Amino acid sequence: MVPAEILPPNVKPLFSYRKYWAQRFGVAPFLPMSRAEMDQLGWDSCDVILVTGDAYIDHPSFGMAIIGRLLEAQGFRVGIIAQPDWRDASAFRALGKPNLFFGVTAGNMDSMVNRYTSDRKIRHNDSYTPGGEGGKRPDRAVIVYAQRCREAYSDVPIVLGGIEASLRRIAHYDYWSDKVRRSILVDAKADLLLYGNAERALVEVAHRLAKKGLAQDFSDVRGIAFIRDATPEGWIEAPADDIEGPDEGRIRKDDARHGADVVIRLPSFEQVAGDRETYARASRVLHKEANPGNARPLTQKHGPRDVWLTAPPIPLTMAEMDAVYDLTYARAPHPSYESAKIPAWEMIRHSVTIMRGCFGGCSFCSITEHEGRIIQSRSEGSILKEIEVIRDKTEGFTGIISDIGGPTANMYRMACKDKETEALCRRPSCVFPDICKNLNTSHDSLIELYKKARTLPGIKKVMVASGVRYDLAVKSPAYIKELVEHHVGGYLKIAPEHTEAGPLAKMMKPGIGAYDRFKQLFDAAAKAANKQYFLIPYFIAAHPGTTDEDMMNLALWLKRNKYRADQVQTYLPSPMALSTAMYHSGFNPLKPVRRGASEAVDAVKGLRQRRLHKAFLRYHDPENWPMLREALKAMGRADLIGPGKQHLVPVWQPAGTGKAGEGHRSVKKSPTRSSSRAFVTKGLG
Q1: Are the C-beta atoms of 599 and 591 separated by less than 8 Å?
Q2: Can you give the residue ranges of every domain in the chain?
Q3: Does the bond joining 433 to the residue before it have cis omega, within 30 degrees of 0?
Q4: pLDDT score of 255 more than 80
Q5: CA dihedral over 362, 367, 368, 370, signed as positive or negative
Q6: pTM > 0.85
Q7: Are 415 and 440 within 8 A, CB to CB?
């Protein structure tokens, strides 16, 4: 029996609000995307209109479906404008004027990550669009959509949400323009921004807007950002310098003793845009103020006004998570798309989300920044019920659940052993540099869930496709045994990211020894089960703090272990990540950032060096041999050029590859399995 989770006394349960009067219209088969659908539902108007850069798929793996159905469950009439033509405001009038607000999101991905590669080249496909067609959303979609909403109806409040807004909520380095940009709230000229998994803030804000509009104070609502002229009376400002200094403990004790409302004053947009070390310090402070148990509001001046961020939201309880995922989803794309295939839907239609959040804290990853480090899990009953719904109602189901997991596959139900300790903790990661002694790493609940899921009538197999945190998995050989015997289909993707200590420390990832230990247990379990399974490791090229020698050593490790990279992705600095602060500033925000005493980090920025690091991951590709030979000679490692197994690249060059005139001997490439991004496949060394 799972003990009931208790919310803080000032937090209202998600489904305890009195429903809005429009609840009388009931549940829509699909949230309407046209006036004709509104007429069929008997609606004269929408209370909320959600604008999204994704196709509308009414399934809980898509943010707009969750947000729309949650608002519907609160009694509001919700319409969807999906992938509108952003060049004309008329597309934003398609459903008429919303009574309460426009909700604006770029979709499940940041629009710049969605549209551009790490080399800033435009992508010609979009997995969230019918037919996979590219170009159906603008750059910086949140800003553009908000502008068109304002043009369509100038007096309607605009509320931003989703990952693009969440990761750009303060002044942030933008890789694509190579500069620090203002908070997206300022550039979009919106009224409110909801960050993270925003169900709790969304419901509160929607009911408040229904009662009093924008003319009220939202500073007591967690997980939102808004603009104000100055810090109100009764608040004490603590400069970011102070909380990073030796007086941090004293300041916190004083705050508690006096019962003060304290807000952290981040360096202004102008300061972080003009000074890289100041940017790194602001990034560090933002990430230290991330635990809902002890985080304080932040404020950052943009010109004469402040962007005010309230403390992070209180995570959903298991009962609330169940209720969100048990809402009435059609579990299909909107009928207007007819037979067009939407790649993202094809990928997830038979998968199940069991949890949210990640306490790994990897510096390059956006999961913790967006979803938080506290794991929010669904109950076993809710998950099994969804699997039965997929079995009974999803077209084309063949008995195989394609993936069961979340941001990570095996953090289900894991948490700090003591709630008071959790509320005081300020570690950015529960597993780096070592697994915290206060962390419950038991896999028992997950193993039991797997067993019940795979034995449901009509279920042939339940797959775990990716996301296994191997440093946790090695704590439970029983989990690895269950995984290998029943939930792997030949290959399992896993992410050691690198082999060398230098870059791994900057990534906040465990040493390669943890991967080696997992591989031993994985291979042993496969052998015992008489199965031939392989791990497909994933590596990052050109992460901040990575030297040419690090990449060379990684390439030698790959060859020694007979791995060959297929498609390779160089590091992409996503907004607000700690490693992005390293990339932009040249300083390490994982350590104290103080003028003259900050730890420097070399960022791999030059196109030639980024290509070289990528080439090391594909050491076996003849196209890369000329570049690698040149680099190895410059590094004093010409001893790695030659015909032997100990050599990384040969002296000769096949005809038609690399530089002309370096030889004419041809080679036959060994086949590799197609994989995504920087996963590698087993091949000939």
Answers
A1: yes
A2: 21-229+304-309, 540-685
A3: yes
A4: no
A5: positive
A6: yes
A7: yes
